[in-house]
């Protein structure tokens, strides 16, 4: 007993914090106002406590966008103008080809932006859900396609959402000369697959010279010091060619959107 008392006095004297767990061999009953844990009304009124069901269903923060490209949003739970950090989910209405703005509880308009760039209505799909958050006077898109597609540069044509291609081939060179020439224009050599896809739509895309000669692609063809050449007499014809030191080959450039 003296030994235990001595240790307790030493701990107290050193100012050490003592912690312990208590094992209660019976039920623990929390005694307090019932309204704190149950009986809350299903409401989204300003300054009102919300029950778990209302929060889980996100009723206070989900709204159908109205008004075409100028969304009129009314959410009573905010009680007025939204502040920085206000986040809501909007059901996208039918849109037109124009910038989108938001009128929030009669306040605004707030531009809708993605990565700082105004969102055009043509980029959104009616009926889908859009999560947005207010920051510095604009609503920022949090979901959907995060990266915007870039427009095709002048001198190229759109193949699909992934890439653009030059409609005509360039004069010939070795693999490195072709790659450097494309890079100097902000472009790159096309992949083998990109060439085949575009070649199959030659008439539709108004491409020329796709099958009149070999063209470089950016593929190495699994051959040392060689590159993949494609296109002679057919869209799917292919072969290998020394990347340098052999006869020159024509090429065309592509662009990633």
The low-confidence parts are: 1-12
- Let me know the number of strands: 17
Main sheet attributes: strand count, strand direction, barrel closure: 8 strands, mixed
Residue share in helices? Answer: 10-25%
Q: In CATH terms, what is the architecture of the largest domain?
A: Roll
CATH topology of the largest domain: Mannose-Binding Protein A, Chain A
**Name of the CATH class of the largest domain:** Alpha Beta
| DSSP helical segment count | 5
Estimate the mean pLDDT confidence: 80
General shape: elongated
Structural class, from helix and strand content? alpha+beta
Give the topology string: H per helix, E per strand.
HHEEEEEEEEEEEHEHHEEEEE
Helix-strand blueprint:
Layout: H1 2-13, H2 52-57, E1 62-64, E2 70-73, E3 87-91, E4 101-104, E5 107-114, E6 117-118, E7 129-135, E8 138-141, E9 157-158, E10 163-165, E11 170-173, H3 175-184, E12 188-189, H4 192-199, H5 202-205, E13 215-216, E14 226-230, E15 238-242, E16 249-251, E17 253-256
Parallel strand pairs: 1-3, 2-4, 5-8
Antiparallel strand pairs: 3-7, 4-5, 5-6, 7-8, 9-10, 10-17, 11-16, 12-17, 13-14, 14-15
How would you sum up this structure, described in words?
By secondary structure, this protein is of the alpha+beta class. The protein folds into 2 domains: 52-141, no CATH class; 157-256, Roll (Mannose-Binding Protein A, Chain A). Helix content is 16%, strand content 26%. The chain is built from 5 helices and 17 strands. The protein has helices at 2-13, 52-57, 175-184, 192-199, 202-205; strands at residues 62-64, 70-73, 87-91, 101-104, 107-114, 117-118, 129-135, 138-141, 157-158, 163-165, 170-173, 188-189, 215-216, 226-230, 238-242, 249-251, 253-256. Strands 1, 2, 3, 4, 5, 6, 7 and 8 form an 8-stranded mixed beta sheet that branches. It is elongated, with a radius of gyration of 33 Å. Residues 1-12 have low confidence and may be disordered.
């Amino acid at each position: 007993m003296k030994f235990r008392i001595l240790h307790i006095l030493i701990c107290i004297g050193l100012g050490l914090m003592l912690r312990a767990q208590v094992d209660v061999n019976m039920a623990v009953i929390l005694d307090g106002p019932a309204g704190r844990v149950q009986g809350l009304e299903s409401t989204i009124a300003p300054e009102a406590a919300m029950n778990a069901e209302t929060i889980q269903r996100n009723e206070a923060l989900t709204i159908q966008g109205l008004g075409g490209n100028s969304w009129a949003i009314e959410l009573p739970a905010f009680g007025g103008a939204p502040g920085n950090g206000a986040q809501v989910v909007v059901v996208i209405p039918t849109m037109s080809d124009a910038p989108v703005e938001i009128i929030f509880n009669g306040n605004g308009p707030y531009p809708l932006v993605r990565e700082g760039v105004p969102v055009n209505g043509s980029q959104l799909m009616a009926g889908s859900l859009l999560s947005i958050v207010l920051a510095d006077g604009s609503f920022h898109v949090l979901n959907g396609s995060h990266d915007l597609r870039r427009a095709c540069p002048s001198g190229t044509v759109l193949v699909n959402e992934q890439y653009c291609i030059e409609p005509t081939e360039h004069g010939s060179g070795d693999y490195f000369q072709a790659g450097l020439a494309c890079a100097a224009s902000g472009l790159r050599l096309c992949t083998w697959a990109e060439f085949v896809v575009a070649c199959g739509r030659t008439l539709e895309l108004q491409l020329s010279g796709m099958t009149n000669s070999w063209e470089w692609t950016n593929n190495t063809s699994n051959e040392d010091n060689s590159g993949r050449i494609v296109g002679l007499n057919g869209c799917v014809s292919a072969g290998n060619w020394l990347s340098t030191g052999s006869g020159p080959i024509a090429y065309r450039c592509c662009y990633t959107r």
